[in-house]
Design brief:
single chain, mainly alpha, 16 helices, 0% strand
């Protein structure tokens, strides 16, 4: 029932398009209201039902507790996808919030707002959206930079929301799992899915990949299961061929990585730096290739973008283009530079903020608000994952 409810909203627009064209009908889907974040709480209710069936969880005795779990507002519309076994016991615990936890929540909320308003919205409105809307109006270099820009935009947008959700939930006394772990540091596509949208990848593994047989029914079947899982993961985002291709790219990449590690055995614990860099570079660009299909409004637009990169790169105009777009490219470079900072450095400055006195926090907050106000976009973009 949970699956059918979610599927109904996901595929109705797609099916109505084809039936209207094939049979001349006039079915209007604009009158159907799509509940915000339906995919997220559909996944949560499925995991609740399956975990009870597997006897990993006792059903709640009060339907209000179940309703609270499904509709918990901080992460309701864009995750992270929370398992009932992790969340429901917290409902019955006494509220507690230490001063350190308060400061950590404050840091997360502030960090999320910076990601969203200062980085994601700015590069989206001032550059990325324009190029994706009309790829042929821009050089191949600009199309490439827009692709990298979107990779940063969707990360800052999605992880920014997650930071805010985890921070707000913590203030309310609930501990939610992390959903991102520097995904663009990944050195292979398997590593990427251990770092990107962690709650979704673990859900797909536990409730789809493993029930299909996982890797216990032979190597060939394991590869098929991987492909099915990623294709359905693409369809989770919407009944559109663009998302199927996005999932297919990741599925094929996961299969290739499995075959690669099988042929060349276990890699060395400390590979040369150039190998790590090359592996990370290839992984990042494969992910960016998939983002072209994910973001484009149609397959034709995606093909136009790729064609521009290959056939009309515009190498002779790169310098002048960088000069004219220095603020956008500079922000993209800074965003990725911060993303690729060592974890120890990030933990250190987060620790400094958490341990700093209240006056310093207020000064830092006012400074950040001033910077955001000076550089913010003219309009606030909705979070990307609100539509899924």
């Amino acid at each position: 029932i949970n699956s059918l409810l979610g599927t109904n909203f996901e595929v109705v627009n797609y099916l109505s398009f084809w039936t209207n064209n094939l049979f001349g009908s006039h079915f209007d889907t604009s009158t159907i209201l799509l509940p915000v974040g339906i995919s997220f709480y559909t996944f949560q209710t499925i995991s609740y039902t399956v975990d009870i069936y597997r006897k990993k969880l006792e059903p709640v005795r009060n339907i209000l507790d179940f309703g609270f779990y499904v509709s918990f507002f901080p992460q309701l519309v864009a995750g992270p996808i929370v398992r009932a076994a992790e969340f429901i016991p917290q409902i019955y615990r006494k509220y507690s919030l230490s001063w350190q936890e308060f400061n950590h929540a404050y840091f997360l909320i502030l960090n999320g707002l910076i990601k969203k308003m200062l980085i994601s919205d700015f590069i989206s409105i001032n550059f990325v959206d324009r190029v994706f809307d009309s790829p042929t109006s821009y050089s191949g270099f600009e199309n490439l930079m827009a692709t990298y820009g979107y990779a940063l935009q969707i990360y800052c947008d999605f992880s920014g929301y997650t930071d805010i959700a985890i921070g707000v939930a913590l203030l309310l006394g609930f501990r939610l799992p992390i959903n991102f772990n520097s995904p663009y540091k990944a050195i292979n596509i398997t590593d990427f899915w251990r770092r990107w949208h962690i709650s979704l990848s673990s859900w797909l593994r536990d409730y789809l990949y493993i029930p299909l047989g996982g890797n216990k029914k032979g190597k060939f079947r394991a590869n098929i299961n991987l492909m099915i899982t990623m294709l359905l993961g693409g369809l989770w985002h919407g009944a559109n061929i663009r998302f199927v291709i996005w999932g297919g790219i990741h599925g094929v990449s996961l299969v290739i990585h499995k075959l690669w590690t099988r042929i060349f055995k276990t890699p060395k614990l400390n590979p040369p730096a150039w190998k790590t860099f090359l592996a990370g570079f290839i992984t990042f660009n494969v992910v960016c290739l998939s983002w072209v299909f994910f973001r484009s409004s149609s397959i034709d637009k995606a093909i136009e973008m790729l064609s521009q990169m290959v056939n009309r790169f515009g190498a002779s105009s790169i310098l002048s283009n960088i000069t004219s777009q220095y603020n956008i490219y500079g922000l993209i470079i800074i965003g990725f530079a911060i993303h690729w900072l060592p974890l120890s450095f990030k933990e250190r400055y987060r620790g400094y903020f958490i341990k700093s006195n209240l006056i310093l926090k207020i000064v830092a907050t006012l400074l950040i608000v001033f910077i955001v106000y000076q550089f913010k976009s003219s309009e606030i973009q909705p979070f990307i994952y609100f539509r899924f």
